[in-house]
Design a protein that fits this description.
CATH class: Mainly Alpha
Distance between the termini: 50 Å
CATH topology: Growth Hormone, Chain: A
Structural class: mainly alpha
Number of strands: 0
Strand content: under 5%
Order of helices and strands: HHHHHHHHHHH
CATH superfamily: MFS general substrate transporter like domains
Number of domains: 1
Shape: globular
Helix content: over 70%
Number of helices: 11
């Protein structure tokens, strides 16, 4: 019965929902969730804010390098196997982080968690979602990425509550065990769609001849992601410890990030739908212009209400 369900077109929305949850759990912690640990680590070990921030950097570098390797593996081997490996390594990585006693240990653990966990889930999940949709792929990918936005807002807030109750070690341990319990079953749902002939419209076929060479497209897309995340991820990562440094309690600081990412959920779905309507590049340009204009508002922030 389950195999019959997997062969139906409606199963693609199960893929989207499962991918959305997985991205929330994995990327919510690796991209933004570690911000909740800055102040506790600083207080316990006396490490500088910059040195602690490099823990997050190590994880993101791991995702970047691991994404290339694990993406190649997903293309050459079984997609589901790669994603299952990513799910397991994500959970084990956070469990291992709970036992760290030195900064270099956190650097190494988060790098490996990013490479083998985030790298094996982030790119393969988006590629898998796109492969299930020959139409409305923008909406599907936007919906899946909305899960990441939920995680980037919800995970730091949840971390602050766990840290207050169990300490930073207990928070890492609890999150690692939760990740294993949640991610592995979802990863087992993943599979490629059945192959089917694809009819390419004449207009698309004609436009293909004017497309950029693949290496050029990769360089331009990488630059776009780098510049986009410089405006988005860097302020988000340091926003919560900044608010705490102003004397505002951790749960309230976490709630600010949560509110921002609630808006991001709607934005990702909306811009995904816009991409289906006007094309991916025009939608990207519109989103970039919006983000660039609004980032200057950070220079006008003076109290919690404005945040």
């Amino acid at each position: 019965m389950f195999r019959s369900l997997q062969s139906r077109p409606a199963y693609r929305w199960i893929i989207v929902a499962a991918a959305s949850v997985m991205l929330a759990v994995v990327m919510g912690q690796l991209v933004n969730g570690l911000s909740a640990f800055f102040a506790p680590l600083e207080a316990e070990f006396g490490w500088s804010r910059g040195d602690i921030a490099l823990v997050n950097t190590a994880g993101l570098i791991g995702i970047a390098l691991g994404g290339v390797v694990m993406g190649f593996a997903a293309d050459r081997f079984n997609m589901r196997t790669v994603i299952v490996i990513g799910a397991i390594m994500t959970g084990l990585g956070f469990v291992a982080a709970s036992r760290a006693d030195a900064l270099w240990q956190l650097y190494a653990i988060l790098f490996l968690t990013g490479a083998l966990g985030g790298g094996a889930t982030f790119a393969p999940l988006f590629a898998l979602v796109g492969s299930w949709f020959h139409a409305r792929a923008g909406l599907a990918i936007g919906t899946a990425s909305a899960g990441q936005a939920i995680g980037q807002g919800g995970v730091p807030f949840a971390n602050t509550l766990m840290i207050e109750t169990f300490g930073w070690r207990g928070a890492f341990l609890g999150y690692g065990l939760f990740a294993l319990a949640a991610l592995v079953p979802l990863a087992l749902l993943m599979r490629m769609p059945a192959p089917r002939p694809r009819i390419v419209p004449a207009a698309v076929s004609a436009a293909a001849g004017t497309a950029l060479p693949l290496p050029t497209a990769i360089v331009l897309m990488s630059a776009a992601v780098l510049l986009c995340c410089s405006l988005m991820s860097v302020p988000l990562m340091h926003l919560m410890p900044l608010i705490q440094g102003c004397g505002i309690p951790a749960p309230e600081a976490g709630s600010v990030v949560f509110v921002m990412m609630v808006a991001a959920i709607a934005g990702r779905v909306a811009f995904g739908r816009l991409a289906d309507m006007i094309g991916a590049i025009p939608a990207y340009l519109a989103a970039s212009a919006w983000q660039t204009a609004l980032v200057f508002l950070f220079t006008r922030i003076g109290d919690l209400t404005l945040l």
